[in-house]
Amino acid sequence: MIRPKINQSERTDIEVTMYLLRLLELDTREQLLKTAGFYVISWTDDLLTWNPQDYGGILEITVQQKEVWFPDLYASNCIRGYQKFGADDLRLYVNYSGAVDWEPTFSLSTSCAVDVSLFPVDSQICSIIILPWMTTNQEINIKDPKLDNSLFETPNGDFAITQTNVTQAFYTVYSNPSYELTESKFTLTMKRKSSLYLLNVVGPFVGISSLCVISFLIDSQSGERLSVSMTVLLSLTVFLSVIDDMLPKTANSISYFVIYVALMIGMSFLCLLCNVATLYIHNRSKETPIPTWLRVIMIRKNVLESNHQHSVNSSTDLEPSSYVCCDKLNSGTSCNHWPEIANIFDRAFFILIALALVSINFGFFIIHII
């Protein structure tokens, strides 16, 4: 159809406003954004003007889209190719002055590059791009496009829109470099609603994973130490299988939370191995000789404890038992020191693993706060 200008050398000004009604879904696995709404597209058709007095005071009429000229606009970043605006039987409003209002609806599935590194407190930036297909800037002028979400009907359960923006870019037509096309990009900034994930995923996982260090405080003779360590490890594994569908999966980026989960399961497994080692040491026969390096550790421990006791009560003579213990260690007598050695390792493992857990948790939360 002929462009709606009496003078075809003049450009047709097009005003475009996108009204977003629903944010249906942001699929992080498939990396697509599903939205619904409508456009209000306005222009002036110089060929569709009349005097209302000549036509019984008619100020406005409606016509089918196929009967008049309209801009050939497409949503260009849909996952199933370009999506054309409107339909042949869609009606347009035409004012007696030639002002035309076109309000095509849309339900789009557009591609979106998702970055889930900061899950579950991540923000995503997605865009809907519209582009004229065969109409160049020499023919139409898309003026100051707008994005309006004030009519938003149903909030999305996972994401909230925090910011909107519209930008334009100009591209040269490949077949004819003298022609340009205008691309309008409607950008949505969305923040994940993280409360559900923090309460149902992160919180329980942090709590369960921190229980493994408590096992070192259980008496080795109670027989429950390995049970606690194994229960924690199995609980984390089962919990991971439960929340697996909630964790984002994309090849573009790896969530720090997924790395955190792997580290915490690894620490739980390390706790189990350390408990096995200390129980093995605790249950060794007193006839088993103590290696020299362990004897040195025991002697230094006893000396430090004796010095501490002496500093607390300097008026009391030092208990000779420490020296007796040291003498027995050096002489290799049959006194059973393996339980005491196991207690030393228990304390060391408790401190080291507790520090590691605190460091991992601190690093995880600092990354997400910053």
TrEMBL record:
What the entry lists under CDD domains is as follows: LGIC_ECD_cation (cd18989), LGIC_TM_cation (cd19051)
List the molecular function annotations (GO) for this entry.
extracellular ligand-gated monoatomic ion channel activity; transmembrane signaling receptor activity
Q: Does the keyword Transmembrane apply?
A: yes
Q: Which residue ranges does the record assign to the Neurotransmitter-gated ion-channel transmembrane domain? A: 204-301
> What is this entry's stated membrane topology?
Multi-pass membrane protein
What are the alphabetically sorted keywords of the record?
A: Ion channel, Ion transport, Membrane, Transmembrane, Transmembrane helix, Transport
An annotated GO cellular component: membrane
Q: Which residues cross the membrane?
A: 196-218, 255-281, 348-367
Main location per the UniProt record: membrane
Tell me the ranges covered by the Neurotransmitter-gated ion-channel ligand-binding domain, including all copies. 2-193
The signal sequence is none
What SUPFAM superfamilies does the database record attribute to this sequence? Neurotransmitter-gated ion-channel transmembrane pore (SSF90112), Nicotinic receptor ligand binding domain-like (SSF63712)
Per UniProt, subcellular location reads as:
Membrane
- The superkingdom of the source organism is Eukaryota
Q: Which family does it belong to?
A: Belongs to the ligand-gated ion channel (TC 1.A.9) family.
Q: What is this protein's name?
A: Uncharacterized protein
Species of provenance: Patella caerulea
